[in-house]
Amino acid sequence: MLADDPLGARRETPHDLAPYRTAFARLDGDVNQHLVVAERDGRTVGTLHLTVIPGLSRRGAARALIEAVRVHADARGTGLGTHLIQWAIAEARRQDCVLVQLTSDATRVDAHRFYERLGFEASHLGFKMSL
Amino acid sequence: MLADDPLGARRETPHDLAPYRTAFARLDGDVNQHLVVAERDGRTVGTLHLTVIPGLSRRGAARALIEAVRVHADARGTGLGTHLIQWAIAEARRQDCVLVQLTSDATRVDAHRFYERLGFEASHLGFKMSL
């Protein structure tokens, strides 16, 4: 699913899983990382990565960061994306986060409308630098 | 410094440090959290919080997130902000992150120019939701 996307196609290597397995082990050992998948009929049809980030600002509040939201092409339009994001919001709240945040590529206009419908506000600019 | 800012003034409680001490202990015990301060003549004049986030996308790459960049009013215009961000970029690279990212409130126009001068691209929208 990471590669089945106009942006992801350029940056994933589905034929070589070794780096993904190493990364999974690291995620699995970190209590602040929550990698969830949605299954339907035994197939993985959605993913979401939630990170809980402790911090000092806002009276020592933790915030939650959503990354890697992906819905399989076969499962689009079924409300699965909404379900994944609502799970993440509920989990962030359960872990006493005061804020949940994500960035969305400026070209993903449909995604922007989707996040706004779910109650997010596009209050920030997201700056990135490749290393 | 968190409170000495048009946005921070509304959300910090410098008269009650207990929640900040609890949060600091949590940060201090997490190997992926790097809270740095800049000192000048024995005084803290700048802060930055760098989080390393393991992930599956981009071939299992880690990314780095910069939060809580603050420069004391007395130290503005001295290049300290640049020095803090360049430290964070170098540290992210040292930890094999492929990307460093941050969000900046849409109202902080001077900050946007600052990050662009340092090589960041405003390629994303930053969505937030208070919980």
TrEMBL record, chains A, B:
Keyword hit for Acyltransferase: yes
Q: For the N-acetyltransferase domain, which residue ranges apply?
A: 1-131
Acyltransferase among keywords: yes
What the entry lists under InterPro entries is as follows: Acyl_CoA_acyltransferase, Bact_Acetyltransf, GNAT_dom
Record-linked SUPFAM superfamilies: Acyl-CoA N-acyltransferases (Nat)
- GO MF term list: acyltransferase activity, transferring groups other than amino-acyl groups
PROSITE patterns tied to this protein: GNAT
Q: Which UniProt keywords apply?
A: Acyltransferase, Transferase
Matching entries from Pfam families are given as: Acetyltransf_1
Q: What is this protein called?
A: GNAT family N-acetyltransferase
Its organism's taxonomic lineage begins at: Bacteria, Bacillati, Actinomycetota, Actinomycetes, Kitasatosporales
